[in-house]
């Protein structure tokens, strides 16, 4: 195994470990401050959609599709053309996320009805989630 590969493997492994530890701290903080009641339910339902998009765009299909295209672009074109491509993609990505965010804000009541249908019966949970 080359030294560069070993260093990269240790970096990724170390950062994954840090991520898991900070996730544990986050979960402990949620349990401490939100408990297991109304506010915790509202919080977790409200964050289902953003977490779904995070998984797709940051950890999933978008990365799997974009990285090979970027690598191909980087090996075939000049640094200026690669920068222009990245600027174009970042602008389009930002625009798509802006539109999805606005749709989510406007459609929050409908989204809550779909994601957590039982919340409609409990107006306090429903309003805490929508707001």
Automatic annotation (TrEMBL):
GO terms for biological process: lipid translocation; peptidoglycan biosynthetic process; regulation of cell shape. The chain crosses the membrane at residues 28-47, 93-116. GO terms for cellular component: plasma membrane. InterPro entries: Lipid_II_flippase_MurJ/MviN (IPR051050), MurJ (IPR004268). This is Polysaccharide biosynthesis protein C-terminal domain-containing protein. One of its GO terms (molecular function) is lipid-linked peptidoglycan transporter activity. Keywords: Cell membrane, Cell shape, Membrane, Peptidoglycan synthesis, Transmembrane, Transmembrane helix. PANTHER family: LIPID II FLIPPASE MURJ (PTHR47019:SF1). It is found in: Cell membrane. It is a multi-pass membrane protein. Its main location: membrane.
